[in-house]
Amino acid sequence: MQKLVVIGAGMASGRVLEHLFETAPDAYDVTLFNAEPRGNYNRLMLSPVLSGEKSYAEIVTHDDDWYSANGVTCRFGEAVVKIDRDRKVVVGQNGEVPYDKLVIGTGSAPFIIPLPGKDLPEVITYRDLDDTNAMIEAAARPGSRAVVIGGGLLGLEAAAGLRMRGMEVTVLHLMGHLMERQLDEAAGYLLKKDLEDRGITVLTRASTKAILGDGKVEAVLLEDETVLEADLVVMAVGIRPETRLAKDAALAVGRGVEVNAQMQTSDPDVLALGECVEFNGQLFGLVAPLYDQAKVVASTLLAEPAAFVTKELSTKLKVTGCDLFSAGDFAEAEDREDIVFRDPARGVYKRLVLKEDRLIGAVMYGDTADGSWFFGLIKDGTDVSEMRDTLIFGPAYQGGAAVDPLSAVAALPADAEICGCNGVCKGQIVTAIEGGATDLGMIRATTKASASCGTCTGLVEQVLAVTLGDDFVLPAAQSVCGCTDLTHEDVRRLIKSQALKSQPAVWQELGWSTPNGCHVCRPAINFYLLADWPLEYQDDPQSRFVNERNHANIQKDGTYSVMPRMFGGITTAAELRAIADAADKYNVPTVKVTGGQRIDLLGVKKEDLPGIWYDLNAAGMVSGHAYSKGLRTVKTCVGTDHCRFGTQDSTGLGIKLEKLLWGSWTPHKVKLAVSGCPRNCAEATCKDVGIICVDSGYQVGVGGAAGMDLKETERLCDVPTEEEALEVTAAFVQIYRENAKYLDRPYKWLAKVGLDWVKAQVVDDLENRRALAARFELSQTVYRKDPWAPLAAKAESFAPLADLTLEAAE
Amino acid sequence: MDTLMDPAVRTFVEVMEIWVPEGDRLVPGGGHYGSRSAFAEASRKTSFARGEGLPGKAWAEERPIVLKTFEGSYFQRTEAAAEAGLTSAVAIPVFAGRTLKAVLVVLCSDDADRFGAIEVWAENAGTLTLDDGYYGAARQFEEISQRTTFKRGQGLPGSVWSSKTPILMRDLGQGYGFMRSESAGRVGLNTGLGLPVPTPDGTIYALTLLTASGTPIARRFEIWDARAAKVGAPGKAVLTDGICDRTGPLWDFETDRMVAAWQGPVGRALGSGLPVIDTGAGAAGYASVVALPIHRGGELAHIVAWYC
Q1: Averaged over B55-59, what is the pLDDT?
Q2: Is the pLDDT of residue B296 over 80?
Q3: Which CATH class is domain B218-308?
Q4: A412 contacts on B by Cβ (under 8 Å)
Q5: Which CATH superfamily groups domain B112-217?
Q6: Is residue A798's pLDDT more than 50?
Q7: Distance separating alpha carbons of residues B288 and B34, to the nearest angstrom
Q8: CATH 3.50.50.60-classified regions of chain A
């Protein structure tokens, strides 16, 4: 009988032995080494053991009786010291064993981030039963806190298990969404929400700086200086093949132990399989290919022909109640087409990725019933053109069903606020409908919903449609874009009432029909989110128009214009010199004084932008935002300082207004002017906000226009002091930011909601005015920053055309 | 004969019965009464209006109810229960959306050495607190439970709440796995089944059955997932977890075990949406099986089955 030595009693090598004993029980005398003091158990089920949903006894694959019945000599708890290929022996801690054939199944080792504090005793990885038991023990201490570093499969399973054990758990994930290798952003959002519903805190884009503690773990420090208290740190950031023995034995090792299709290493008598191997440049972490490898190893050992081939893989997360499925390739690319289905009420997201009439990827969350069918289509490369229209509904639904356009509103809970003005919730509207209200007028009369600014009208009508069914005919409304049936106003309202604070939250909860929106809706949604959640939401530059992305206006010849801010139209000789120097240095062909009282440098090459910004920054100037949907300029006249007609310090107020408002994002551009007297030299009566100074104070007008439409401002209010003028203006800009449809200038928005409603909010209700101004200021703590500064860079190779100093001297 | 090979055990629950709505009353829908034929007979002749008796009260109040004293209460079969030695009961209404499908009632006897727990946890200001529970002789465990609260995702009740699914936990008393483990271990509570009890107004209730090997609530537990989102179409269910005193783990890592509508007691619960009690062939060699359907959003979502 030949001698077979197996190193590692994992799932893959265990499956080899099963095949071997089934096919040729007398072929080999087997010795099995395992560094763990136990035999083969189902490691994939460690997570349910951690959570308490399985016992260790249940996940044992091979017990002592099995090894004994099959005549396996078990050397458990004994590490292998080396493989001596010349003598064909394996040297264990307790002595050596000769082999004719050797199987290496050493698996993988967890990757440890080289952080300060990584060696503290409560920093553990998650690979085996001992790790699991260590976590269980740590969780037994009441009120203990765990930080899990890594939001991949293992990290999340550890987090869910520890939470079930009663710990306060925080997951830190470096990337923008969880399980980014297996899930797209939309599914990652749903998973995060699901975990947060379990009381787990999930921090994405979280980079760990150090693990703190004196002799024991006390806290985790993040790069942004956040400190998270912790009693246990689980590091689950990845694995690497365990190749030390193979490397020491001079076998060919790349990232893993290199094997051929017969699972032979560079030594044909030494085979390897599992997480320690590399085949055709590929590593393996999921169980399906490991079992395929096991069959091949058994065949090779019995000199039977067999070859390992890699296959498509699918992913499963073992957290009870989290249903997700992912397979294939779902990266975005131009030659691919997406089919998306969302059901916000059930938390369902399904996305299929097609390329050339074939399914190449599938991501599903909440409804995974058809996962294996889609997986089959991917593996087989089936032509799906015939069933494309109904493909997303799965094999049982090839008759087809339309996505319900009302699903987002149907999914709203009864306490979702529909009318923000009057604080009316969906439940109250439904009660009114059940009480006999059958149209918008009756709803307004009974609940006051949609009776003030009216921007929630679309939502109220949708609640009527959802509740009354066919008895209510929904008026046609202009949706944001083809990705949704909701209007801008609906979306704005729902972002607020449902506290949607990220783009994936909007796409999912409002039932978007595309994975990530489109070029039409993304800028709008990006603005709505940053306006409503300035602290929580991070501006997404990819969701901006090109000029906003580049912080400069692109001109028809492909060059850019650069316009520094001149607060209130006031500049200095030094600033003018710096502008002139910049114009010279970068060969700016056109220097233009604008109608907004500043200087535009036109014809700047894209590659010169960081340099010119750097030079202007150095002279104390910031971006003038001449390219943005935000505050542009505050035009002023000279006011009381110089003008004999001036009634107030209009220039001073203009500067204060611009310093207050600059950097803010708004639904469309916002221009202001302050005139020092009714002669109106600053042309304030055609601005979005125009202030006319008079002897008694300040006349604040809003909603002017002087572009495609020409419109005079309407008087919002008269205020006696400069402070009130500033506060009213900030409040007006904020209420416009919070309510207007993206790309509506104030005059267009005012035509929809009515000046009276705005007056009631901004003028009559002093408390509300202050709250609006305070919210504006809160937002400005984030956005009153020069966007040029982080991108500016000193030009490297500037050589003056001539040395003017020298010439002068000569 | 498996049944004969098992040592005789005294079960924690003595009687299980189902009440189904018929018009404006609840009428008997089957049950397991064991040797308590007089109580069975009394029950067969009874029906309850909404708000009447224990089943009617669970219907009217739309929540699970624990009743630990019959004498002087709204319980209507007090005399027959006393004769049968039954002292406590738990009524679990089964709602599909706003529709009452049935009320399952389990009745127990007091006994100085009968340990177990049937608990109702209710959400209160963001945490789960014990609404009420029947613990048999496990008095200290009862006291600890009354002082315990669970946040979302924590422990068996908190996990049932956050995952909206039934959960089967092992080794409750093994020093970990369960927030009240020390006390649970002392009285031999080793397995816990937790399940959500949906109600029309959306109030969160989690029911837990904690079983001790000496006086088991059940000797075999199964959890079946019947959601179309999991199995693709109504009328099918997949076994997601299960454990049996005799055959060990029922789950299979590699092969799904499916049941179709009307196949056995679980299949009957799947087909009808009603709880099923079977004392015959469907009980897999045990004396009885209860298959309890759990609906979510009007759809049949899960079935839990326990055999004793």
Answers
A1: 97
A2: yes
A3: alpha beta
A4: none
A5: GAF domain (3.30.450.40)
A6: no
A7: 9
A8: 2-109+241-301, 123-237
pLDDT tens, residue by residue, A673-728: 999 999 999 999 999 999 999 999 999 999 999 988 899 999 999 999 999 999 99
CB pair distance less than 8 Å for B165 and A320 = yes
Q: What is the pTM of this model?
A: 0.82
CB contact under 8 A, B229 and A164: no
Q: In Å, how far from its chain's centre is CA A98? A: 55
Which positions ≥6 away from A251 have C-beta within 8 Å? A85, A257, A258, A265, A266, A267, A270
ipTM of the complex: 0.89
CATH class of this structure's domain A414-477: mainly alpha
CATH class of A323-397: alpha beta
Q: Three-state SS for A356?
A: coil
- Judged by DSSP in three states, A347 sits in coil
Q: Within 10 A of A79 (CB to CB), how many other CB atoms are there?
A: 14
Token readout for B291 is 């298959």
Residue range A631-783 forms a domain whose CATH class is alpha beta
Alpha-helix residue ranges (DSSP H) falling in A332-406: 371-380
Partner-chain contact A164 B233, CB within 8 Å: no
| DSSP string across A292-327 | HHHHHHHHHHTT----------EE----TT--EEEE
pLDDT of residue B6: 56
Contact A263, A308 (CB under 8 A): yes
Of B159, B179, B229, the CB nearest to A367: B229
Quote the CA–CA distance of A667 and A120 in Å, as a whole number. 51
The interface residues of chain A toward chain B in range 394-453, judged by CB-CB distance below 8 A, are 394-396
- Express each pLDDT in A727-785 by its tens digit: 999 999 999 999 999 999 999 999 999 999 999 999 999 999 999 999 999 999 999 99
- B249–A58 C-beta distance less than 8 A: yes
- The structural architecture, per CATH, of the domain A2-109+241-301 is 3-Layer(bba) Sandwich (3.50)
pLDDT digits over A558-601, tens only?
899 999 999 999 999 999 999 999 999 999 999 999 999 999 99
Distance CA(B305)–CA(B308), nearest Å, equals 10
